Amino acid sequence: MARFHPAIDERLAAFIAAQRLFFVATAPRRGRVNLSPKGGDVFRVLAPLRVAWLDVTGSGNETAAHLLDDGRVTVMFCAFEGEPNILRLFGRARGVLPGDGEWDGLAALFPAQPGRRQVFVMEVEAVQTSCGFGVPLYAYQGERPDLAAWAERKGEAGLRAYRRDRNAVSIDGLPTGMKVEEE
Predict the structure, then answer these.
(1) Which residues contact residue 106 at a Cβ distance below 8 angstroms, ignoring those fewer than 6 apart?
(2) Which domain holds residue 26?
(3) What is the pLDDT of residues 19-52, one digit of tens each?
(4) How far apart are CA 2 and CA 52, in angstroms?
(5) Is residue 179 part of a domain?
């Protein structure tokens, strides 16, 4: 049975820290709903009702566009190992880009990695857990090296060009807010 919590307490924060995968769902006011899987050491609980996650350059930038357009987001964690559990965080979020006043402090919370694009900061409005009995058990094998290797091969100039060409607007044509410099 689903249960709402007043905030992210120590037990829920520990659950979040133990997960190696989470999902981010967003939607613009008009357009496609997006659901993105995220892995790696990229999520932090900042306060009982505030979280952040590091975002790296990828094939699209739907989350940024949707948050600029509407701001609503749901983050979901599932236990694939150990006791069954699902945790959903509902709220509103915004992107913080390199060069923004908060960037240095937020980026320092995460291990350095190639392709860092933005940090999303979420103000949590609701915290919900549910049983997770239907989530299968999976054994973690490790992180895929492909994204980091791709970003390293691109280099900073190549990543700027990629973000300008492929990350400046969403698949629905919405702006993502990326500060893309012309080469």
Answers:
(1) 52, 96, 119, 121
(2) 3-166
(3) 999 999 999 999 999 999 999 999 999 999 999 9
(4) 24
(5) no
* Tokens, residue 57: 């350059």
CB 2 within 8 A of CB 130: yes
Q: Are 120 and 63 spatial neighbours (Cβ–Cβ below 8 Å)?
A: yes
Q: Number of folded domains in the chain?
A: 1
* Token output for 50: 């505030």
Whether 178 maps to a domain, the answer reads no
Eight-state DSSP code of residue 43: E
Give the H/E segment covering residue 47. Answer: strand 43-47
How far apart, in whole angstroms, are the C-alpha atoms of residue 18 and residue 163?
31
Q: What is the pLDDT of residues 122-150, one digit of tens each?
A: 999 999 999 999 999 999 999 999 999 99
| Residue 150: strand, helix, or coil | helix
Q: What is the DSSP letter of 101?
A: T
Q: Are 52 and 109 in contact (CB under 8 A)?
A: yes
Q: Is residue 176 part of a domain?
A: no
Strand partners, 90: 74, 126
Contact indicator for 149, 113 with CB cutoff of 8 Å: no
Map tokens 């006791």 to a residue.
83
pTM, full prediction: 0.95
